[in-house]
Amino acid sequence: MAKNRFSSGDGPSQRQLRVGELIRRTLSDVLIRGEVHDPDLNKISITVGEVRPSADLKVATVYVAPLGGTLGGETAEAMLAALRRHTGELRHHVAKAMTLKYAPDLRFRLDETFDRLDETRRMFSDETVQRDIAQRDDDEDEDDLG
User: Fold this and answer.
1) Same domain for 79 and 20?
2) Same domain assignment for residues 50 and 93
3) Whether residue 126 sits in one domain with residue 92
4) DSSP letter at 57?
5) Full residue range of the structural domain in which residue 132 is found
6) pLDDT at res. 114
7) What DSSP string describes 78-94?
8) Per-residue model confidence (pLDDT) at position 1
9) What are the CA-CA distances from residue 91 to residues 26, 37, 68, 108 (Å)?
10) pTM score
11) I need a labelling partner for 136 at 20 to 30 A (CA). Which of 24, 80, 81, 119 fits?
12) Is the same domain home to 89 and 104?
């Protein structure tokens, strides 16, 4: 198969990004409107953070998190279980919104982005790290003068 001369081969293609964003918006709309009739699913506010389609667009990994909640505990597990129970119905909604040959198989994972951001903030607030950053800034200032 010939390579696209405009593609560098690193990261997702433009088509993958567009399809992922369309899936994300469609799932968000379906979950906001409560179109899936499941009391367990409708009592949880769900954030669809990102969708990563595979290169052939047949599988889409959907990263979700309970809105305003933490990932640990029963809320996240109940949310994932409810989404996995209704994967077929959610896939049907996605297929109606898209014009692809195949509706992608949806795989739900917990979105841990916010937890990683919190950990990064804690690391930067550590006084040892602050001291190292200040020392590096001082060294760069001396290099600029000399």
Assistant:
1) yes
2) yes
3) no
4) S
5) 112-145
6) 66
7) HHHHHHHHTHHHHHHHH
8) 44
9) 10, 15, 25, 12
10) 0.71
11) 119
12) yes
